[in-house]
Amino acid sequence: xxxxxxxxxxxxxxxxxxxxxxxxxxxxxxxxxxxxxxxxxxxxxxxxxxxxxxxxxxxxxxxxxxxxxxxxxxxxxxxxxxxxxxxxxxxxxxxxxxxxxxxxxxxxxxxxxxxxxxxxxxxxxxxxxxxxxxxxxxxxxxxxxxxxxxxxxxxxxxxxxxxxxxxxxxxxxxxxxxxxxxxxxxxxxxxxxxxxxxxxxxxxxxxxxxxxxxxxxxxxxxxxxxxxxxxxxxxxxxxxxxxxxxxxxxxxxxxxxxxxxxxxxxxxxxxxxxxxxxxxxxxxxxxxxxxxxxxxxxxxxxxxxxxxxxxxxxx
Length: 315
Ligand code: BDR
Ligand code: CA
Known about the structure:
This protein is α/β, with parallel strands linked by helices. The longest helix has 19 residues. α3 links the parallel β3 and β4. α5 packs across α7 and α9 runs antiparallel to α10. It is built from 13 helices and 13 strands. It binds beta-D-ribofuranose (BDR) and calcium ion. The site of calcium ion (CA) has 9 residues, from α1.
Protein backbone atom coordinates (compact mmCIF):
# COMPACT_ATOMS: atom_id res chain seq x y z
CA UNK A 1 0.00 0.00 0.00
CA UNK A 2 1.48 3.33 -1.11
CA UNK A 3 1.34 5.95 1.66
CA UNK A 4 2.15 9.64 2.17
CA UNK A 5 2.48 10.47 5.88
CA UNK A 6 1.60 14.10 6.65
CA UNK A 7 2.75 14.89 10.19
CA UNK A 8 3.84 17.39 12.86
CA UNK A 9 6.16 15.30 15.07
CA UNK A 10 5.02 15.16 17.90
CA UNK A 11 5.27 12.23 20.34
CA UNK A 12 2.32 10.24 19.02
CA UNK A 13 3.44 11.13 15.48
CA UNK A 14 6.74 9.41 16.34
CA UNK A 15 4.80 6.35 17.56
CA UNK A 16 2.93 6.27 14.24
CA UNK A 17 6.12 6.64 12.21
CA UNK A 18 7.82 3.75 14.01
CA UNK A 19 4.71 1.65 13.26
CA UNK A 20 4.85 2.59 9.55
CA UNK A 21 8.54 1.69 9.42
CA UNK A 22 7.79 -1.86 10.60
CA UNK A 23 4.84 -2.75 8.41
CA UNK A 24 5.84 -4.74 5.32
CA UNK A 25 2.47 -3.94 3.69
CA UNK A 26 3.32 -0.22 3.65
CA UNK A 27 5.37 1.49 0.97
CA UNK A 28 6.11 4.89 2.47
CA UNK A 29 6.57 7.37 -0.41
CA UNK A 30 7.16 10.54 1.58
CA UNK A 31 6.91 12.25 4.95
CA UNK A 32 5.45 15.75 4.64
CA UNK A 33 5.68 18.11 7.59
CA UNK A 34 3.37 20.81 8.92
CA UNK A 35 3.37 23.33 11.78
CA UNK A 36 1.49 22.07 14.84
CA UNK A 37 3.10 20.35 17.81
CA UNK A 38 6.03 22.72 17.20
CA UNK A 39 7.00 25.30 14.56
CA UNK A 40 7.74 24.08 11.05
CA UNK A 41 11.55 24.13 11.37
CA UNK A 42 11.25 21.96 14.50
CA UNK A 43 8.69 19.47 13.13
CA UNK A 44 10.82 19.08 9.98
CA UNK A 45 13.99 18.58 12.05
CA UNK A 46 12.11 16.00 14.14
CA UNK A 47 10.91 14.17 11.03
CA UNK A 48 14.50 13.98 9.76
CA UNK A 49 15.74 12.75 13.14
CA UNK A 50 13.06 10.04 13.34
CA UNK A 51 13.59 9.03 9.70
CA UNK A 52 17.22 8.34 10.46
CA UNK A 53 16.54 6.63 13.81
CA UNK A 54 13.90 4.35 12.31
CA UNK A 55 15.95 3.59 9.18
CA UNK A 56 13.41 4.94 6.71
CA UNK A 57 14.25 5.56 3.05
CA UNK A 58 11.31 7.89 2.28
CA UNK A 59 12.18 11.56 1.81
CA UNK A 60 11.04 14.35 4.12
CA UNK A 61 9.40 17.34 2.43
CA UNK A 62 8.85 20.51 4.44
CA UNK A 63 5.31 21.85 4.37
CA UNK A 64 3.27 24.76 5.66
CA UNK A 65 4.58 26.92 8.49
CA UNK A 66 1.39 28.98 8.63
CA UNK A 67 -2.26 28.08 8.62
CA UNK A 68 -4.66 29.20 5.88
CA UNK A 69 -6.20 31.91 8.05
CA UNK A 70 -2.71 33.23 8.88
CA UNK A 71 -3.29 32.84 12.63
CA UNK A 72 -0.37 31.47 14.64
CA UNK A 73 -1.75 28.95 17.11
CA UNK A 74 1.13 27.07 18.74
CA UNK A 75 0.26 23.90 20.61
CA UNK A 76 0.76 24.39 24.37
CA UNK A 77 4.32 23.20 25.23
CA UNK A 78 2.75 21.25 28.09
CA UNK A 79 1.68 18.62 25.57
CA UNK A 80 4.76 17.79 23.44
CA UNK A 81 7.45 19.93 25.10
CA UNK A 82 9.58 22.72 23.64
CA UNK A 83 11.17 20.48 21.03
CA UNK A 84 7.97 18.62 20.07
CA UNK A 85 9.42 15.28 21.24
CA UNK A 86 8.90 15.55 24.98
CA UNK A 87 12.17 17.47 25.45
CA UNK A 88 14.35 14.38 25.02
CA UNK A 89 17.84 15.17 23.85
CA UNK A 90 18.15 15.35 20.07
CA UNK A 91 21.57 15.53 18.35
CA UNK A 92 22.49 19.10 17.40
CA UNK A 93 23.02 18.02 13.78
CA UNK A 94 20.50 15.73 12.16
CA UNK A 95 21.18 14.04 8.84
CA UNK A 96 19.58 16.30 6.20
CA UNK A 97 20.29 14.10 3.22
CA UNK A 98 16.71 12.87 3.40
CA UNK A 99 15.30 16.38 2.95
CA UNK A 100 13.83 16.85 -0.52
CA UNK A 101 13.45 20.32 -2.07
CA UNK A 102 10.01 21.68 -2.94
CA UNK A 103 6.81 22.10 -1.01
CA UNK A 104 4.73 19.41 0.65
CA UNK A 105 1.67 20.49 -1.37
CA UNK A 106 3.56 20.02 -4.64
CA UNK A 107 4.89 16.64 -3.49
CA UNK A 108 1.33 15.50 -2.69
CA UNK A 109 0.11 16.61 -6.13
CA UNK A 110 3.02 15.00 -8.01
CA UNK A 111 2.74 11.73 -6.08
CA UNK A 112 -1.03 11.41 -6.58
CA UNK A 113 -0.62 12.17 -10.28
CA UNK A 114 2.19 9.62 -10.61
CA UNK A 115 0.10 6.83 -8.99
CA UNK A 116 -3.58 7.57 -9.71
CA UNK A 117 -5.96 5.66 -7.43
CA UNK A 118 -3.13 4.01 -5.50
CA UNK A 119 -1.99 6.40 -2.78
CA UNK A 120 -3.40 6.62 0.75
CA UNK A 121 -2.67 9.87 2.57
CA UNK A 122 -2.41 9.47 6.35
CA UNK A 123 -2.66 12.98 7.81
CA UNK A 124 -2.02 13.36 11.53
CA UNK A 125 -1.43 17.10 11.89
CA UNK A 126 -3.18 20.23 10.71
CA UNK A 127 -4.62 19.76 7.25
CA UNK A 128 -2.91 22.79 5.73
CA UNK A 129 -0.68 20.91 3.25
CA UNK A 130 -3.59 18.89 1.91
CA UNK A 131 -5.76 21.97 1.50
CA UNK A 132 -2.97 23.85 -0.30
CA UNK A 133 -2.53 20.88 -2.65
CA UNK A 134 -6.28 20.78 -3.33
CA UNK A 135 -6.44 24.53 -3.99
CA UNK A 136 -3.53 24.25 -6.41
CA UNK A 137 -4.88 21.18 -8.22
CA UNK A 138 -8.52 20.35 -7.34
CA UNK A 139 -8.45 17.30 -9.66
CA UNK A 140 -6.27 15.40 -7.16
CA UNK A 141 -9.43 14.69 -5.15
CA UNK A 142 -10.23 12.12 -7.83
CA UNK A 143 -6.78 10.54 -7.67
CA UNK A 144 -6.32 9.59 -3.99
CA UNK A 145 -7.22 6.08 -2.93
CA UNK A 146 -8.17 7.29 0.53
CA UNK A 147 -7.41 10.08 3.01
CA UNK A 148 -7.19 8.91 6.63
CA UNK A 149 -7.22 11.75 9.11
CA UNK A 150 -6.46 11.92 12.81
CA UNK A 151 -8.54 14.84 13.98
CA UNK A 152 -11.87 16.01 15.26
CA UNK A 153 -14.29 15.10 18.02
CA UNK A 154 -17.84 14.34 16.95
CA UNK A 155 -19.50 13.62 20.26
CA UNK A 156 -19.71 9.87 19.60
CA UNK A 157 -18.93 7.95 22.81
CA UNK A 158 -19.57 11.32 24.54
CA UNK A 159 -16.18 12.66 23.47
CA UNK A 160 -15.61 16.40 23.25
CA UNK A 161 -12.62 18.50 22.22
CA UNK A 162 -9.16 18.47 23.75
CA UNK A 163 -7.82 21.95 23.00
CA UNK A 164 -11.17 23.63 23.66
CA UNK A 165 -14.40 21.97 24.81
CA UNK A 166 -15.54 22.12 21.18
CA UNK A 167 -12.40 21.34 19.20
CA UNK A 168 -9.64 18.80 18.72
CA UNK A 169 -6.15 20.26 18.23
CA UNK A 170 -5.43 19.31 14.59
CA UNK A 171 -8.75 20.73 13.40
CA UNK A 172 -8.61 23.78 15.68
CA UNK A 173 -5.12 24.52 14.32
CA UNK A 174 -6.49 25.10 10.82
CA UNK A 175 -10.29 24.82 10.68
CA UNK A 176 -10.48 26.35 7.19
CA UNK A 177 -8.15 23.70 5.79
CA UNK A 178 -10.06 20.89 7.51
CA UNK A 179 -13.40 22.16 6.21
CA UNK A 180 -12.02 22.19 2.65
CA UNK A 181 -10.71 18.63 3.02
CA UNK A 182 -14.09 17.31 4.20
CA UNK A 183 -15.93 19.12 1.39
CA UNK A 184 -13.75 17.61 -1.36
CA UNK A 185 -14.81 14.57 -3.36
CA UNK A 186 -12.14 12.16 -2.14
CA UNK A 187 -12.91 9.35 0.29
CA UNK A 188 -12.05 10.61 3.79
CA UNK A 189 -12.02 8.53 6.96
CA UNK A 190 -11.78 10.40 10.25
CA UNK A 191 -10.08 8.81 13.23
CA UNK A 192 -10.93 11.35 15.92
CA UNK A 193 -10.98 11.60 19.70
CA UNK A 194 -14.17 9.50 19.60
CA UNK A 195 -11.88 6.48 19.13
CA UNK A 196 -8.32 7.62 19.91
CA UNK A 197 -9.13 8.09 23.60
CA UNK A 198 -9.64 4.32 23.78
CA UNK A 199 -5.95 3.82 22.90
CA UNK A 200 -4.21 4.43 26.22
CA UNK A 201 -0.57 3.40 26.48
CA UNK A 202 -0.07 2.78 30.20
CA UNK A 203 3.23 3.06 32.04
CA UNK A 204 3.51 -0.75 32.00
CA UNK A 205 2.81 -0.90 28.27
CA UNK A 206 5.53 1.69 27.57
CA UNK A 207 7.96 -0.17 29.82
CA UNK A 208 7.22 -3.34 27.84
CA UNK A 209 7.92 -1.51 24.57
CA UNK A 210 11.24 -0.39 26.00
CA UNK A 211 12.11 -3.95 27.07
CA UNK A 212 10.92 -5.70 23.92
CA UNK A 213 11.62 -3.20 21.13
CA UNK A 214 15.09 -2.08 22.14
CA UNK A 215 16.42 1.44 21.72
CA UNK A 216 13.51 2.79 19.67
CA UNK A 217 11.06 1.45 22.24
CA UNK A 218 13.08 3.18 24.93
CA UNK A 219 13.04 6.38 22.86
CA UNK A 220 9.23 6.30 22.79
CA UNK A 221 9.14 5.62 26.52
CA UNK A 222 11.42 8.57 27.27
CA UNK A 223 9.39 10.96 25.08
CA UNK A 224 6.21 9.77 26.77
CA UNK A 225 7.34 10.85 30.24
CA UNK A 226 6.51 14.46 29.38
CA UNK A 227 3.31 13.49 27.55
CA UNK A 228 2.21 11.37 30.53
CA UNK A 229 2.51 14.35 32.89
CA UNK A 230 0.16 16.34 30.66
CA UNK A 231 -2.38 13.51 30.49
CA UNK A 232 -2.24 12.96 34.25
CA UNK A 233 -2.39 16.58 35.38
CA UNK A 234 -4.71 18.04 32.75
CA UNK A 235 -6.81 15.11 31.55
CA UNK A 236 -6.74 12.88 34.66
CA UNK A 237 -5.55 9.83 32.66
CA UNK A 238 -3.10 7.12 33.74
CA UNK A 239 -1.09 6.74 30.54
CA UNK A 240 -0.74 8.50 27.20
CA UNK A 241 -3.12 8.57 24.26
CA UNK A 242 -1.76 7.08 21.02
CA UNK A 243 -3.86 9.30 18.71
CA UNK A 244 -1.77 9.21 15.54
CA UNK A 245 -0.85 5.52 15.56
CA UNK A 246 -4.56 4.72 15.32
CA UNK A 247 -4.79 6.36 11.88
CA UNK A 248 -2.11 3.90 10.73
CA UNK A 249 -4.05 0.97 12.20
CA UNK A 250 -7.18 2.03 10.32
CA UNK A 251 -5.42 1.83 6.94
CA UNK A 252 -4.50 -1.81 7.65
CA UNK A 253 -7.38 -3.10 9.71
CA UNK A 254 -10.57 -1.12 9.01
CA UNK A 255 -12.47 -4.17 10.24
CA UNK A 256 -11.44 -3.27 13.81
CA UNK A 257 -13.48 -0.04 13.57
CA UNK A 258 -17.14 0.97 13.41
CA UNK A 259 -17.92 3.98 11.26
CA UNK A 260 -20.75 6.35 10.45
CA UNK A 261 -21.25 7.89 7.03
CA UNK A 262 -22.42 11.44 6.36
CA UNK A 263 -21.29 14.89 5.29
CA UNK A 264 -18.98 16.77 7.69
CA UNK A 265 -18.74 20.51 8.38
CA UNK A 266 -16.20 22.38 10.51
CA UNK A 267 -16.98 25.53 12.50
CA UNK A 268 -14.50 27.98 10.98
CA UNK A 269 -14.47 30.82 13.52
CA UNK A 270 -15.72 32.05 16.88
CA UNK A 271 -15.93 30.36 20.27
CA UNK A 272 -16.57 26.90 18.75
CA UNK A 273 -13.89 27.22 16.04
CA UNK A 274 -12.63 23.79 15.03
CA UNK A 275 -15.74 21.90 16.09
CA UNK A 276 -16.49 18.99 13.73
CA UNK A 277 -20.11 18.04 13.03
CA UNK A 278 -21.39 15.12 10.97
CA UNK A 279 -24.86 14.91 9.48
CA UNK A 280 -26.31 11.38 9.44
CA UNK A 281 -26.34 10.09 5.85
CA UNK A 282 -29.98 9.08 6.26
CA UNK A 283 -30.98 12.73 6.58
CA UNK A 284 -30.95 13.63 2.90
CA UNK A 285 -31.12 17.15 1.47
CA UNK A 286 -31.60 20.05 3.85
CA UNK A 287 -29.39 23.08 4.11
CA UNK A 288 -27.02 23.49 1.13
CA UNK A 289 -23.97 23.72 3.48
CA UNK A 290 -24.57 20.02 4.13
CA UNK A 291 -26.49 18.76 1.10
CA UNK A 292 -23.73 19.74 -1.35
CA UNK A 293 -21.03 17.80 0.49
CA UNK A 294 -19.99 14.19 -0.04
CA UNK A 295 -20.58 11.63 2.68
CA UNK A 296 -17.37 10.84 4.58
CA UNK A 297 -16.69 8.20 7.22
CA UNK A 298 -16.19 8.94 10.92
CA UNK A 299 -14.93 6.22 13.25
CA UNK A 300 -17.27 5.72 16.20
CA UNK A 301 -15.83 2.64 17.94
CA UNK A 302 -12.63 0.56 17.91
CA UNK A 303 -11.35 -2.76 19.20
CA UNK A 304 -8.75 -1.14 21.44
CA UNK A 305 -7.23 -4.38 22.76
CA UNK A 306 -6.57 -5.64 19.25
CA UNK A 307 -4.95 -2.32 18.30
CA UNK A 308 -2.65 -2.22 21.32
CA UNK A 309 -1.63 -5.84 20.80
CA UNK A 310 -0.97 -5.28 17.09
CA UNK A 311 1.11 -2.17 17.75
CA UNK A 312 3.26 -3.90 20.33
CA UNK A 313 3.78 -6.97 18.18
CA UNK A 314 4.56 -4.91 15.09
CA UNK A 315 7.07 -2.45 16.47
C1 BDR B 1 -3.50 15.47 17.83
O1 BDR B 1 -2.88 16.71 18.17
C2 BDR B 1 -1.48 16.55 18.31
O2 BDR B 1 -1.11 17.08 19.53
C3 BDR B 1 -1.20 15.07 18.26
O3 BDR B 1 0.02 14.78 17.62
C4 BDR B 1 -2.37 14.49 17.52
O4 BDR B 1 -2.13 14.48 16.12
C5 BDR B 1 -4.38 15.02 18.97
O5 BDR B 1 -5.38 15.96 19.21
CA1 CA C 1 0.14 14.81 15.22
